[in-house]
Structure formats: structure tokens, C-alpha cells
Amino acid sequence: MPESLDRSRDARFTAVYDAYYHRILGYAQRRSGPDDAGDIVAETFAVAWRRFDDVPDGEQALYWLYATARRVLANHRRAEQRRAVLAGAIASEALMVSPAPSAEPQRALVALAQLREDEREILLLVAWEGLDAAALAAVLRCSPNAARIRLHRARRRFARALAAVNRDSKGAGRTGDVPPAGPAKTTLELEDCP
Length: 194
What we know:
This protein is mainly alpha-helical.
């Protein structure tokens, strides 16, 4: 490849990196926590570098990066689940008992945890990343109409789950029961979901 093309590619990659690094970092931190976010961002941009000819121009590059980060994060979660299974097997072998969580989670997190993974992701992309239907469609790689339908269904299921959690928590207040803890590490307020 001629040197001028190399410099042009380097400059374009640097521009994409500078423009969207913090957005992708925020995305990763909200889904994985600060310890793993750096690795997820690094892998996302490594994929972008290797496949830079596939990265679209303009704002579409951000959506491409979100889609790539989703896949990197999914791979990361699968690896975490494998490690958790292994740790569980080791713990049971050693007859170790871990204490139950002591903090009561917020109701919205409990409701969010009851949704399917893809529904949670759609709600979080809209609520935290501020994506509209067209941007959501680019990230999910579907039509804008399909993205709107999926978002509508996810919102409807979240509303039902939240109503159930609210009903359960009223009963829990009388009996002293605590709703089950969800796996999420961050908060999502109902008003965050447009």
C-alpha cells in the first residue's frame, strides 16, 4: 500500500477514535464496570483497525462501533460465565459458602433484570446511549421499523415487569421479604426510558 494511503487511513482511524472513544468507553462501563471496560474498548477499536475498510463514514461509524462493542461484550460475558461456572464448581468442591447480598436492589433494576438480554440491551441503548430508531436499527442491523417494534415490545415488557415488582415489593414490605437481586450493576430509572 502506498505511503500516502497509509497516512490517510491512519488519519481517518485517529479521527474516528478521537471522536467516539469516550462514547464507546461509556457504553462499555455501563455494561461491564470500570475494570473490564478498558479491555472491551481496546478490543472494539482493535477490530475497527483490522476491519477499517468496513467502517462507514460519519455518524454511521459510531453505530458500527456500538455494534462491534456489543459483540465484544457478548464474548466477554460468555467468558465471564465460563469462569463463573468453573469458580462455582471449585467452590462447591471446597464446600465454600458465599453470603447472600445484603443490599436491596432498586425496583427498576429488578424489573430490568427480568427482561431478556436483548430487550435490556435495546432499552439501555435508547436510555443511556441516546439512540433514536434509525441509530438503533444501525446498531442492531435491522430496519428502522423493526427497531421501533423491538423497542416498543421491550418497553411494554419492562412496564409489566416493573408493575409486578412494585406489587411484590408492597407485599414484601408487610412480610419482610426482599425482592430477588438482579445481576445489573448500575441504575436505570423509569423516566430514563422515553
